[in-house]
Amino acid sequence: MEVTNKIVIITGAGSGIGKATAIHFAKYGATVVVSDINLESAQKVVDEIATNKGKAFAIKANVAKFEDVENLINTTVEKFGSLDVIVNNAGIGPNLLKTHESLLKDWDRVIAVNQTGVFYCMKVALQQFLKQGYGNIVNIASLAGLKASPSNISYSASKFAVVGMTKSAAMEYATKNIRVNAVCPGYTESALLDQLLNAKPEMDAVLKSVIPMKRYGKTSEIAEAVVWLASDSTKFITGQTITLDGGTSL
Ligand SMILES: NC(=O)c1ccc[n+]([C@@H]2O[C@H](COP(=O)([O-])OP(=O)(O)OC[C@H]3O[C@@H](n4cnc5c(N)ncnc54)[C@H](O)[C@@H]3O)[C@@H](O)[C@H]2O)c1
Hints:
Elements: E1 7-10, H1 16-27, E2 31-36, H2 39-51, E3 55-60, H3 66-80, E4 85-88, H4 104-132, E5 135-140, H5 153-172, E6 178-185, H6 191-199, H7 203-210, H8 219-230, E7 241-244
Parallel strand pairs: 1-2, 1-4, 2-3, 4-5, 5-6, 6-7
The chain binds nicotinamide-adenine-dinucleotide (NAD).
Nicotinamide-adenine-dinucleotide (NAD) is lined by residues 11-12, 14-18, 36-38, 41, 61-64, 89-92, 113, 117, 140, 142, 185, 187-188, 190-193.
């Protein structure tokens, strides 16, 4: 996959899908800006990449804060001269309450990170992409952005929004050499899934029963698709959602 020497920002890359994606990009020769709200975990990923002779750099950013997002993208461009790809991955999980029981603060928190955070990153990255005449956005949405997701209203709303922003922006910038796509993972082994299974252990059997492959996804499997969408192998793909769910959506 051709991503050699591309400058790539990944948000929420200290853990899970973001971490695996950072490691994959570095393996394929990209220079990776590993960003997370938790600088310590981002730095650990950078150290792991460096041990394997990859190129990576950590920047702390809370995607729900516009000034952090501006700092993340401006610092990257100052340091490396351009930005080829941004992977908008940072996201937080469901609260498992029915809609009428939902807490307003949970709604605000999830929307701020999963939806507004993606908008902030797209807005600032697109300004840079227009200046340089090219760019590539890969948003991490979810199966919950395509299908119903009960007891999950804020997460569901945020992920449908990510799919909508992906498609709308793809049309806006299609003639500008800027592509915008999304991946929609199903249940994938990560801290986010652990959080759900720790709260409701009985869900393990229930979830596996609805996955035709009878297993959860691996973060590396999601990462492969992200790198592919960001690579020069997919130059005619824009505005698409790629679902990686072991067949769950069937
Ligand atoms: N794991 C799954 O089953 C699954 C399924 C579908 C979609 N997703 C999506 O994949 C993405 C990654 O999730 P994951 O499963 O790897 O979870 P994870 O909890 O392992 O990783 C999320 C990372 O995001 C960081 N983060 C949280 N809030 C942040 C903020 N405000 N700013 C910057 N970073 C922040 C965390 O510190 C963490 O490192 C999320 O957008 C999630 O919604 C996950």
